[in-house]
Amino acid sequence: MGVVGKGFAIVAADTSAVHSIMLHKNNEDKIMLLDSHKLVAASGEPGDRYFEFGGLIRVEYVQKNVSLYKFRNGIPLTTAAAANFTRGELATALRKLSFASVRPSVKTPMAFSVDFLVSVMFMIFSTLIIDQNPYSVNILMAGYDNESGASLYYIDYIATLHKVDKGAFGYGSYFSLSTMDTHYRSDMSVGEAIELVDKCILEIRSRLVVAPPNFVIKIVDKDGARDYAWRQSVQDVTTAAV
Amino acid sequence: MARYDRAITVFSPDGHLFQVEYALEAVRKGNAAVGVRGTDTVVLAVEKKSTPKLQDTRSARKIVSLDNHVALACAGLKADARVLINKARIECQSHRLTLEDPVTVEYITRYIAGLQQKYTQSGGVRPFGLSTLIVGFDPYTRMPSLYQTDPSGTFSAWKANATGRNSNSIREFLEKNYKETSGQETVKLAIRALLEVVESGGKNIEVALMTREEGTLRQLEEAEIDAIVAEIEAEKAAAEAAKKGPSKET
């Protein structure tokens, strides 16, 4: 979920990495730094958040293209431009085949050649296998631009793009959006915004049947994007309890 | 010679690749560029031939960043440079994406040199008419590096080097006067070397440096360059006076 306040934007995400009924880890950071003044919170299939077989490069690819723009043009992309670029990528992939495809600006490393063969096999047996969604990742992009201040963009998995003041994804959004509707005001201070986020987290923890135990909150303002806090109710246990 | 026009770069009977040598000629006509490697600083200085009054100098930068920790200066055909620099920048980001690591200076030099070589062995293309000086800090060891590539696609590491116009005289100067320097001394050495062939003055030189702590390229302002040039002139004058002084007392 994300919230825009006075000169800053806050994004919070749960930190559970889940695989069907099992929790892999509960301190998985799903909010990436896109550049010094942009944050991207991505939720959805792990294969779509970072480069993995079957998933196309998503947020990391966007990150590297944002950097490339900065080197080519001497100035960083605006948040709006980065959001539109991301949406464009999602939109293109929406109607593409869901097999790993090679882009002109990125090379597929040798290590993945085995997976490529498997992709080819998938193509042959594709009629027997249910296609995955090209992108099942929902994104909230928050950024600060000197000219236009803080902004938040809502990009969902079918390439919908909206500039919003508050947004949320996932089952928790059913609860947090209502909470935000009641308590959100424009131009909140950092303290007030954090209170709102905490209220949402409380709502999720008390009402969602599979509530994630831990959350991470990050903030972006004129001084850049950085971690703000973690809200942990369960610490990661490194050794099995006896 | 119908048989010889599929590949433009073909061997001559005495083993030369004339196109590559002509490309080196193009480099020799380009702006002088100097690179110096210090213990904790790397400096690139490029000659700025008289800038037209109406031109916006910011759009004609000769020293560019390829990535946060790697920079490049070149001598030769500027249009070719744009293409090469663009490909190198893409490669830097591509490397970061697929290997989750920034490029080493050697890697990107090898990539650029490889690209230059490819164009000496393909059909229907001519070699890139430029030599590059690539500087940077290795992302993990934080060691400074200076590399040079040329149109034939060879590359090597240097402590200090020059390319472009009058590069031989600059290199001679550097060979005579090079010593391990750090910080401002490295900048002065680079500027002194360039001043051998260029009129002195902040508006005729473009200087950029990278230090180990900062890690990113910093272009020097004209005023800063003027100040350093003034220092160098003062030092030169003092050295001259010292030489003349004792010899008068005979």
From TrEMBL, chain A:
GO terms for cellular component: cytoplasm; nucleus; proteasome core complex. It is found in: Cytoplasm; Nucleus. Keywords: Cytoplasm, Nucleus, Proteasome. One of its GO terms (biological process) is proteasomal protein catabolic process. Signal peptide: none annotated. Pfam families: Proteasome. It comes from the Eukaryota. Gene3D superfamilies: Glutamine Phosphoribosylpyrophosphate, subunit 1, domain 1. The keyword Cytoplasm applies. Belongs to the peptidase T1B family. Component of the proteasome, a multicatalytic proteinase complex which is characterized by its ability to cleave peptides with Arg, Phe, Tyr, Leu, and Glu adjacent to the leaving group at neutral or slightly basic pH. The proteasome has an ATP-dependent proteolytic activity. Non-catalytic component of the proteasome, a multicatalytic proteinase complex which is characterized by its ability to cleave peptides with Arg, Phe, Tyr, Leu, and Glu adjacent to the leaving group at neutral or slightly basic pH. The proteasome has an ATP-dependent proteolytic activity. Component of the 20S core complex of the 26S proteasome. The 26S proteasome is composed of a core protease (CP), known as the 20S proteasome, capped at one or both ends by the 19S regulatory particle (RP/PA700). The 20S proteasome core is composed of 28 subunits that are arranged in four stacked rings, resulting in a barrel-shaped structure. The two end rings are each formed by seven alpha subunits, and the two central rings are each formed by seven beta subunits. The catalytic chamber with the active sites is on the inside of the barrel. This is Proteasome subunit beta. It comes from Brassica cretica (Mustard).
Automatic annotation (TrEMBL), chain B:
It is found in: Cytoplasm; Nucleus. SUPFAM superfamilies: N-terminal nucleophile aminohydrolases (Ntn hydrolases). It comes from the Eukaryota. InterPro entries: Ntn_hydrolases_N, Proteasome_alpha, Proteasome_alpha-type, Proteasome_asu_N, Proteasome_sua/b. SMART domains: Proteasome_A_N. Pfam families: Proteasome, Proteasome_A_N. Coiled coil: none annotated. Residues 4-26 form the Proteasome alpha-type subunits domain. The keyword Cytoplasm applies. Keywords: Cytoplasm, Nucleus, Proteasome. Its main location: cytoplasm. Gene3D superfamilies: Glutamine Phosphoribosylpyrophosphate, subunit 1, domain 1. Transmembrane segments: none annotated. The keyword DNA-binding does not apply. Component of the 20S core complex of the 26S proteasome. The 26S proteasome is composed of a core protease (CP), known as the 20S proteasome, capped at one or both ends by the 19S regulatory particle (RP/PA700). The 20S proteasome core is composed of 28 subunits that are arranged in four stacked rings, resulting in a barrel-shaped structure. The two end rings are each formed by seven alpha subunits, and the two central rings are each formed by seven beta subunits. The catalytic chamber with the active sites is on the inside of the barrel. Belongs to the peptidase T1A family. The proteasome is a multicatalytic proteinase complex which is characterized by its ability to cleave peptides with Arg, Phe, Tyr, Leu, and Glu adjacent to the leaving group at neutral or slightly basic pH. This is Proteasome subunit alpha type. It comes from Brassica cretica (Mustard).
